[in-house]
Amino acid sequence: MTTLRSLTVPISEPSAAIGLLEYLVRDEQLCWLRCGEGMVGFGEAARFTASGPDRFTEAEAWWRQTVAAADVTDPIGAPGTGLSAFASFAFSKRSPFRSRIIVPELVIGSRDGTAWVTMTTSDPARTLDEDAVLAAMAGWIDAEPAHRESTPEDEIRPGMLSESEWKNAVARSVAHISAGDLSKIVLARDIVASLGTPVAAPQVLRELGLRYRSCWTYSVDGLLGSTPEMLIKVEDGVARARVLAGTLDRATAPEDDPGYAARMLAGSEKQQQEHRIAIESLLGPLAPFTSSMSSHSEPFVLELPNVWHLASDVTADLAEDADGARPGVLTLLDALHPTAAVCGFPTSVAGELISELEHMDRGPYAGPVGWIDAAGNGEFGIALRGAVIEDPQTVRLYAGCGIVAGSNPAAELEETWSKFRPMLEALGLDSHSGGQSAVSGRTPAPVGA
């Protein structure tokens, strides 16, 4: 195993206006940002990949060995400082996608008024002192961020299923629910953005970070997006989660009705049922790892620029084992994923139906994405409202909906377009409306036609 050396150096805080977004300058960057804070990674000092049902346990074993062997100097000692890594995991245990942990060569971080830069190297001969760290930082951020303008060649193409085929999959799902096979399934679909010029990943991430400040903007190896859903956050022995289920498109709301979202979400039995299933699917698996746990007695309405969601926050004190150790974030991921919010309930039945009905491999979409540090802290969201850069001019976008007994195929299709909207706008493509997508000021044939 490669032995890593890591040094953390305090730095001045980034600009208050956009925070760490100012350091998004390179296409192959890693990031985890919210409200301008978080971490931005450059380069690669080490990498681990795995696939299959044991991907989480294999990743945890590798990370523990890497941390144990590393020489880490961290005078700050806050969550995210010192040796840290970014990670992305496949949604499905059957997926050929290689889940990955990437230790960057350089991490710039900021949180709660403290900013730092960490340099990590596997080269035993490389100088690792404050001057070397600051020089490496200057080299990495000395780049002009790529910028892309929309072109007439930009277009949105159907993914694995046409719109009519996907609506048929929703109808088949409702039939399975009516037959008592399951109570909820989350069906996803994809579309493809074919661009006339290469995608500018830093530009996309900046757009997402500015438009969706309260979401977690992520980038790991070509997977990028801005998720509103925190699967699990571990910090100093306390675990937190944010569960979302129940969605309302803001584009459909009347302008002069401030109580519309609460009435349509909290007053809808379909939306409430979907949310109850999602929260219960988190609390059950999390409970064995905790000494105490609390959550909202009633969900609240989370307002985002594109949609409203029913949301609940969960807080839990993690229990110590006989040796006084608490479970790390990767252990919790293995226990929690997939929740009903991205799979369905029962998850085993829903997972089988997803494979049958979606006709695609989700890869990292709807899988855990986030970061870990050497102290066992970490944050992992669910890779939603995102896309995968397949090549410089091809980006595959994903969106899904929770299907329950009261679901309507046409309404669910429109919900997917509301969830595609953040990435489409960040890519410079107009969002879908009324069965067609306006791209670069022109109206192509209906998607799925």
From TrEMBL:
UniProt KW Isomerase keyword: yes
Region annotation (Disordered) ranges: 430-449
UniProt keyword list: Isomerase
InterPro entries listed in its UniProt record: ADC_synthase, Chorismate_C, IsoChor_synthase
Boundaries of every Chorismate-utilising enzyme C-terminal domain copy: 163-419
Lineage top rank: taxon: Bacteria
SUPFAM superfamilies per UniProt: ADC synthase (SSF56322)
One annotated GO molecular function: isochorismate synthase activity
Catalytic activity: chorismate = isochorismate
E.C. number: 5.4.4.2
Pfam family, one: Chorismate_bind
Isomerase is among the record's keywords: yes
Family membership: Belongs to the isochorismate synthase family.
PANTHER family named among the record's database cross-references: ISOCHORISMATE SYNTHASE ENTC
NCBIfam families: isochor_syn
Protein name as annotated: isochorismate synthase
